[in-house]
UniProtKB/TrEMBL annotation:
GO terms for molecular function: methyltransferase activity. This is Class I SAM-dependent methyltransferase. It comes from Pseudonocardia adelaidensis. Keywords: Methyltransferase, Transferase. The keyword Methyltransferase applies. Pfam families: LCM. InterPro entries: Ppm1/Ppm2/Tcmp (IPR007213), SAM-dependent_MTases_sf (IPR029063), TcmP-like (IPR016874). One of its GO terms (biological process) is methylation. The keyword ATP-binding does not apply.
Amino acid sequence: MVLPAFTPAQESLFLTLSGRALDSRLPHPFLGDRMADEILRKTGYDPLARFPTMRSRLVDPRTKVFDIAVRAKRLDAVVRAFVGRHPNAVVVDMGAGLDGRVFRVDPPPTVDWYDIDLPEVIALRERVVPRHAHAHAIAADVTDERWLDGIPAERPAVIVADGLVAFLPQDGFVSLLGRLTSHFPSGELAFNAYTTVAVWATRHLGSFATIGGGVVNPGFNDPHEPERRVPALTLAEEIFLTRAPELAAMPLAGRLAARMIAGSAWMSRMSGTTVLRYRF
Ligand SMILES: C[S@@+](CC[C@H](N)C(=O)[O-])C[C@H]1O[C@@H](n2cnc3c(N)ncnc32)[C@H](O)[C@@H]1O
């Protein structure tokens, strides 16, 4: 398949897709998304050529995929719990890339699901991600004002963004949060956080050279920061992957490092992956 020339922000979808695909090839996967591997194979994209950490022989395969696979699992769990309580919910996956989250979550048919991404990505998505009866794709920049007009406004919503926030300018991110909380009557918003250190690392470390140029958000270290910017939001949960039960299946070095850090929320926030969940 001839792939379009993606920007670094768009190409980042292959890092998360590859992480889930490689996870599914493990003897005991953390997430086990076999469809991710099928989608990756259909595209013909070679993650080993583009992401040095994925090809490194020094890094254990479980370590390569842990953060990507387990954060996807946590975001799936947020969606699953929400649609369990609200069978008429709307699900919005912002910056969905080529993720088949709707197939993993498998919501009841009363749920409407919206996958949003930039037009070039949605065009590829339509070629390689299987169709789902209750999922709709919207080709839009999430910082544009109009895309929400096409989504029902009278139903509770759960909104997720896996790997997106780093690629949004700060003013665009804040006004997006404001529009989401005004559009829906109530709901939840969950995303993986980027600290200032994580942003710096993604911009400057050679291992992220393929996507670093797309990172424009400054990041934030205090999970209450979005509440201050958008008062409709209330932080409901801060999920630290340094405390994930799945760490039991990691190599010894990873387990020990996480155990040293896990006792401190600050250290967990600054050095590990965190999923933030807000209510509105
Ligand atoms: C790291 S990828 C994650 C993709 C997907 N969520 C996953 O987990 O595989 C980030 C995604 O955000 C999308 N993206 C970046 N900026 C965007 C914007 N302004 N509007 C919509 N999507 C955007 C990119 O095209 C890309 O698909």
